Structure formats: C-alpha cells, structure tokens
Amino acid sequence: MKQFLKMTLATICGVVILSLITGLFFVISLVGMVASDSAATKVKENSVFVLKLSGSVNERSEEGTPFDDFLGLGDTGSMGLDDLIASIRKAKDNDDIKGIYIQGGSAGFDSPATAQQLRDALKDFKTSGKWIVAYANNYSQASYYVATVADKIYLNGQGSVDLRGLGGKSEYYKGLYDKLGIKYQVAKVGKYKSYVESNTLTGMSDYDREQRQAYLGGIWKYWLKEMAEGRKVKADELDKLVNDSLLAFTPAEQLIKSKLVDKVLFPEEIKAEIKNRLKLGKNDEINQLTLSDMLNVKSKQKENGGKIAVYYAYGSIVDSEAMNMLEGGGHCIVGKTVADDLRKLADDDDVKAVVFRVNSGGGSAVASEYIRHAVKLIKAKKPVVVSMGGAAASGGYWISSPANYIIAEPTTITGSIGIFGLIPNVSGLVTDKLGITFDGVKTHQFAGYETELVAGKDTQEIMRQMQNYINRGYQNFLNVVAEGRGLKPEQVNEIGQGRVWLASDALGIKLVDKLGSLDDAVKKAAELAKLQEYHTAAYPAEPGWFEKLMNKEPKGSYLDGQIRELLGDAYLPLMQIRNDLKNNSRMQARMLDDIRVK
Description:
The protein is 46% helix and 20% strand. Helix 16 links the parallel strand 16 (384-393) and strand 17 (405-408). The longest helix is centred in the first third of the chain and has 37 residues, at 2-38. The chain crosses the membrane at residues 12-35.
C-alpha cells in the first residue's frame, strides 16, 4: 500500500511539473510571438517586396491569431485590399526597396473593382521609377489583369494564361423545388430586381440578361483597355484573340508571340532575373519583404492636422450577428452596431470629416435604414463622403445616399434600387408528400400568419398585404435616394426598378458624383471640411489577436461537411430554404448575386 501511494504521488507530481513546464514554454512562446508581431520591420538596403497573388483579396484582411496553426484552424489565405495598398505605398516611398516581384497568379478578388484598385496602386508605384516583374505557373484572369501593370510578365514553360472574358452561368432551382413540392412566394418592386429569379424561374429573364450584359461589358471594356496598354498591343486585336482562342490551353510559345507574356522561365531563372535587376552577384542573397513584413514597416504618414475617419462597411447588411450566421457567416454589416459606431464619430470633436467606405450588395432594408439615419446625423455635424468599393448596390446604395458626396471606382457596381420579399411555401412537401397536417385555434384572422405563409394552402390575402408592404418600402427607398441626391422620386424610379448600374454609367444619371479612389474620397472630405493638413484613421479598429482568439468560431462542422458532400449540388438550394424559413427580415434590399472574380 505504501509503495502504491508513493507511485501515485510521484505520478501526480510528474503531471504537475510537466504542466508547469508546458505552461512556461507556452508563455515564453506567447511573449515571443507577440513581440515578433509588434516589432517594426527594418528594411535592408537593396530589397524587393514579394507580392504573392494567391488566396483571396477582400476589402479588409481577416487575419487569424498567432495560435491558428497550433490549434489547427489554419490560414484563411485572405488578404485585405487596405493592407495591400498601404504596403505598396510604403514600398514606393522607401528608397531601400527597389522593386516589386508579383509571384503566383491564382488570386480570387471579391469584385472586379478590387482587382482594379490593386492594379491602380501598382501603377502608381511605377511612377517612382521602380520596377515590377511578375511570374506564375498559371495566371487566372483577374490576376493576369493585375499583372499587366508589370514591366515584364514571365511564365512557367507548362503554364497558362486563363484570359477568357467575363461571364458565366447562374443556377436556377425552380425545377428542383417543383419536384420537392416547394414554391417560392415573391413580393417585389423592380422589373430588374433579379435576386429572386434563381428560386422562381428556370432561366434568366430578359431584364436580368440586359443589365448583366451591360455591366459585364462595361467592366470588360475597362479591363481590356488597361491590359492592352500594359502589354503594348491593340485593344481590338487582344479582344479578338480572347474571343477566338481558348487561351487556357494555348502553348506558351503562342502566348509569347501574341505578347501576352514576355518569356518562359524556370523558378531559378526568375531568381537570376531579379538578382540582375538588383545588381547582385550569383551567390548573393535577395533581401525579400513579404506582405506581413511590409505591414510592420513604419509609415511616413504623420498625424498632423485634422483627423479624417475612414469607416469600412463591407459584407451583407444584416439585423444582427445571429442573422449573419444564417446567411453563412463571413464579414457583415450589422445595422445597430454600425449605426452606433457612426453616431460616435458624429459626436467625436477630433474627427473633422468621415469617409464612409461601402462595399456591399445590400441585405436587410430595416438595417439599411438604421445606418442611413446615422449617416444623416454625421452629415448634420461634419462632411461625410462615400467611397464605393466593389459594390454599393441595393441596401449598399441605400446607406450611401445621404452623403455630401459619392465617389465610386470605375468598375464599381451600384444602383439596384428595388425591394423584395421571398418566402418558401413547403405545403406541397410537408402535407402532400409527407402527410403532415396543421390545425389549431386563433382569435383573429392573421394570428399565426407566419405558419400559414410557409405551410398553408391559401396565402393570397397574406401575400397581397405583403406586396403592399413591399410597395411602401420601395416608395421609401425612392424618397431616400431623392432626398440624398437632390432628385425627384419620379426620376429615381426611372433609373431604379432594381436596375444594376456600372459606376461609369451611374455617373451620368447622378447616382454618383465622381469616379475615383478611396484617396480621392479622403481628399474631397478634407476639401469639404476646409482642412489644409489632415491625417486618416481607420474604423472600426481591427480586434487584437487576443480578442480574435477569444471570439474564434469554427468555420463549419464535420456534420455540415458530410451533409454538403452527400447532397452535392442540392446542398445550397436546401440551405437557402432553411435560411429563408428562419429569416425574419421579410423586406430585403439586396443585389442579384455574388460578383467575385478569379
């Protein structure tokens, strides 16, 4: 017994000592990671900024914590446009950085305008007289568009340039829903308001085809002009080449002949090319700076003069974080949270003007109105300028409309002034096919109308009253835009109807005031605030790594993954039904679909 107690005590002591040692190493590692993360990067002489075009590029970065790899949460591969542009500017201003090496070419962008803004920043970098070269095994279309700003474009001998034009096919689920016994009930205003069509039609409507052709054609025309200028070829010849050839399968020799790339190189040869540009010897090391390194390089911006707040609002507009989870998660614009933030900026005497950076295809009309009112409160006290990112459409335009001035990128998608409500009726499935029936008592005609909408046979009167509700919402939308833009509601209705506009076209119909960048919006805000000297501050502040660690949520579950694999193509429409059944925000101001490009 005495021997047993000794062994037990020894085991307990061993476990305690091991835990203490492990904890000590954890704390030491923690301190090291935090110190490393916060330390300023010292740029060595004759350095090159390596810009990896892989993963996804979004409005702002969604960085993880120092423990993501340790915890198995992995790297999202997401880069923020704000970080990229800031790093490119630092590289331009730093005399020790001689050039930028664009590596890889498979990045996905949240919108065509995001790719355009990155390219514009690289084009501005070249005004310093420094060089840019690009190399990839394969170039996706958007990445190639960005890379055409480079002095030289190199390619792996077995690589490809997947230049194909813009477009694609959408999925329509009505046939599936008919077989399941599900029918979507729609109340909407706006003949171009096509968001509902994937659930109610078997193909694209003429109105949707018209607007898509218009804005995709406009984006391609802009991209084509810039790519042709970058590669020093004629735009019409490049356009014909893309139309007549499947370039993804075209041999590298033909790509060189067509001037799409300059030369075929192996990895060690591109390394030698960069050494040559840096005037290094064969055995010299290349001083490289990654995006993470550049973020820790000290900026030359001085905090002089008045403060201009740049507030970022991007993602779907939702009533609450809970509603965002129903829509699949991701970054979102929570109505009350954003409105509260904007009110604080309105009351902050240190903030002399606000640039409201909007990148959203809309969402809840109620949340949109909440935010719009907060923008008006700012406007009553100080100038507010909207800078539109990839999209500022539907609810995204709603929240933008009260600003003193609206600046959009040339390829921003905007407008989509329209309203809809979309509710699935599952009576054909649950009653006719599964045999589930409903019965009960009520004191008034419309008690329990939610159940009637989704599972009842006779919903005409409820939908009639819902259509009236949507009609009032649309009229309110017209009034909101008319007030903000100095137009009559009748004029807004003519350019409304849910029609999506490219910003270059929206300029002529007074939906935007000027085509330009976020920098242009900041300069305009300073002008309106009569500031000779100014500096910017980004809002909302990025959470620290500890806050991210505490709030870290899993990106799905094993069961969800298994269901997705089992259902295949049926997963998304069935999840759409689930979300629509739980979504209490019946009035939606939302754009037609995702505009991500690769």
